[in-house]
Design goal:
The protein is α+β, with helices and mostly antiparallel strands. Helices cover 64% and strands 11% of the residues.
């Protein structure tokens, strides 16, 4: 909504600039064509109008109240030079020529004074001065120049109120449509994932379990073992965040882990936690090849650490830094969450010990945990290359 408010203010400033400049140029043409103003007052008035146009240009960029004051001052100065520089008999003609300036250029800043009480008061005060000046120049309240100038101020005020109120309503409508679209898309993606998961289970695990339930009739023991191993491998990939693609019923193609750079598999972990609301930022290198069993243990341990951040840290972002040498690959998982006192953790809580430390030690790696209340948590994971 803040962005919409900024765009609204930008639109109002741009409209002010266009209306002010166009009306000023129309008045210049009218005054010159009338040929009723002596040369000296005419040149002075034209210089004031030129200064007002320049102020309008700068106002359209910044919206500063000082540019508002400059627009109003130069505009009133041009009117004063034109009205006082001519005979009383030709003032009504000059007033008719400068009607766009009085009713358009000087009223245009009224559109962009939202949130600026000083500028708004200054513009309204200028409107009162313009009305008095036009009545004095024409000698009557009911003249066409007076009516035209007042109509211009009224129209500008109506446009300003309409734009100011319409844009927030449109923004709210757009936001509600966007929310509904995101909800519908999420529901569609969830349904698609559910269907894909159902097909996946039907083609693999359920088919194997059905064979086991019927004692593997018609299938050799070796074939049963190979099928079960493929199912276990498939489930392991799913746990690591991969997305197997079916090539035919019961056959899913999977990239060999021994040939996959670590960075590609880390990206799948990042996407998995991103869907669950945890933004994971990667640092360092991911161009490291690991043996299959080491990669499994490393990624599962990393996933457990990120899951702990998601559940317990109270923040929505974690940082993972990957470094390596000739012997080891290390991942440092850090968060700026609530942290905890390591000495208060019960020895009976074996989640981190079993899911992270023991898993890495089984493949020759290790894990270290650092944390303090209010200072976040850091876990260093090590796995051999």
């Amino acid at each position: 909504m803040e962005f919409i408010a900024q765009e609204r203010d930008r639109l109002l400033r741009a409209t002010t600039r266009v209306v002010g400049i166009v009306c000023a140029l129309i008045s210049v043409v009218g005054v010159v064509c009338a040929a009723a103003v002596p040369a000296l007052p005419l040149v002075g008035a034209l210089l004031c109008i030129a200064a007002m146009v320049a102020s309008l240009v700068f106002f359209g960029r910044s919206g500063s109240v000082w540019w508002t004051a400059a627009i109003l001052t130069t505009g009133l100065g041009s009117l004063a030079l034109l009205f006082f520089g001519v005979d009383e008999s030709v003032r009504p003609l000059v007033a008719a020529a400068v009607m766009p300036l009085a009713g358009g250029s000087l009223s245009a800043p009224l559109m962009a004074q939202r949130g600026q009480p000083f500028g708004l008061g200054l513009t309204i005060g200028t409107g009162a001065i313009v009305a008095v000046a036009m009545v004095w120049a024409t000698g009557t309240v009911l003249s066409t120049p007076v009516s035209g100038a007042l109509l211009g101020w009224v129209l500008i005020a109506v446009v300003a109120v309409w734009i100011s109120r319409s844009i927030p309503r449109v923004a709210r409508r757009i936001y509600s449509i966007g929310t509904a679209h995101r909800a519908e898309r999420q529901a569609s993606e969830t349904e698609a994932q559910r269907r894909q998961g159902a097909r996946l289970l039907h083609d693999t695990v359920l088919a194997t379990l059905t064979l086991l339930a019927h004692s593997g009739v018609g299938v050799s023991e070796q074939a049963m073992r190979e099928q079960a191993a493929e199912d276990a491998r498939l489930l392991r990939h799913l746990r690591l965040g991969a997305t197997p693609q079916p090539s035919q019923s019961g056959d899913y193609s999977l990239t060999r882990e021994e040939e996959s750079p670590l960075g590609q598999t880390l990206e799948s972990v990042k996407q998995r936690f991103g869907r669950m609301g945890l933004e994971v930022s990667w640092h360092g290198t991911g161009q490291v090849l690991l043996p299959s069993h080491v990669l499994d243990a490393f990624l599962l341990a990393l996933g457990e650490c990120l899951e702990n951040v998601r559940r317990h840290a109270g923040v929505g972002e974690a940082h993972v830094t990957i470094v390596h040498d000739n012997d080891m690959v290390r991942a440092m998982v850090t968060d700026s969450g609530v942290g905890f006192d390591l000495t208060t953790v019960s020895a009976e809580r074996l989640g981190f010990k079993e899911s992270v430390v023991s898993r890495l030690r089984e493949v020759g790696g290790d894990a270290k945990l650092f944390s303090a209340p209010g200072s976040g948590t850091t876990v260093v994971l090590e796995a051999p290359r």
